[in-house]
Each structure stands twice: as C-alpha cells, then as structure tokens.
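Our consortium's second objective concerns turning raw sequence data into structural hypotheses that experimental partners can test. To show how far this objective has progressed, the report includes one record in full. It was chosen at random from the queue rather than selected for favorable results. The single chain below, 206 residues long, was entered without modification.
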Amino acid sequence: MKRILWDLDGTLIDPNQRLYSLFCELTGNRSISYAVYWELKAKGFNQQRMLQEINYGGDEKAFRDRWLKNIERKELLEKDVLQDGAEDVLKKLNNQGYHMYIVTNRQKYENLVEQLRFLGIDNYFRGVIATMQKCSKAEAVLKELEIGERDLFIGDSMEDIHAAKDLGIQSIQLVKENSLNICIGERPCYTVNTISEIPLLLERIS
C-alpha cells in the first residue's frame, strides 16, 4: 500500500485571501495592502510582528483568541482556492493507487469536510484527520492509522516535517517562491516548488 498524508492549508489550498481578510477585519485596519501583508509574512513576520507593524493598540491575546474563533467561518473559507495543479495531481495519484489522507490543524470538522466537497476534492481522500488544536499532527495520525515505512507526509511547514520525523516516515516540503519557511535543523527528505512536481518525484523515489 502506498499512502500519502497531505497537509491542507498552504499545501493543497491557498488560504491567503482568507487570512488577510480576517486580519483586516479583526484589526479594523487596511493600511497594509494584501501584497505588502504577504511580503512581510514571507520575510518571517509572525502575527505579533504584524500587529506591531500597524501599531495595533488592542490586547494581543484577545486578538489571538478571536482569530482562532473566526478563522474557520464558512464565509471566510469560501475565499480559499485550490493551489494551481492540485486537483490534477490528486487525480493522478489516486489513479496510481495511492491511499491519501488530509492531516490538518483545523478545529471545525464539519466546515472542513464541507469545504473539501465545495472544492471538489473530497472523493480523493480515504480519511480526514484534524488535530482540533488539541494535539500534534503526529499524535492525531497515530490515533487513526497504523503507519508504515512506505508512507509519506507532504506539507509546506516545519510542523509538517517534524510530524513526518515523529512518525518515522519520509517527507516532501512544498517550498513556495520567496518563502523563508524552509526547515532549519529538521530538514525534509525532498523539496518541490510546485505541487505539479510531486508525481514525477514520487516516480523517481519509489
């Protein structure tokens, strides 16, 4: 059996418009444009530094709490789009016999499943594993699956690469253009710049 664990946000889908829209909504500030917001993010600005950049005067903990409460609202999820080439890759790998699962930190399971249907990719997955922000991705996976040495984790973040290591499996990191989100210390087994590169890479390493 060939099994792939897929991260969702930033890997299969582009959530950038949703994240920017919520930032503007919660701060009541649009002084930073969409383009500048993501330029700063690419430079490594975390949420705290973004708030400092706009001289946010509110309570930062309260902001984080409201962020987590609102980030998966249905009307915001509708702003998400599939990454270029994502559906073609999922279709190809499904036809090649890969068993694929979503592994995500999402909290609202029903909204998550509904979004996958809306995007037209739900049928490619044998399961959807969500941490609900209560455990690590590796812990959530181990509650649902028996991991084998041929399994693979594909994601865009250091958290995903750490999860693969904790599970004892190989990893592929999607490293986007101008991104500083490259693992330091724990490096992925392989990297790609676009999702469309993944099928060819899998053929090479199988």
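The partners drew two points from this record. The longest strand covers residues 98-104. Strands lie at 2-6, 13-14, 81-82, 98-104, 127-130, 152-155, 170-174, 190-192. Both points have been shared with the crystallography group to help prioritize constructs.
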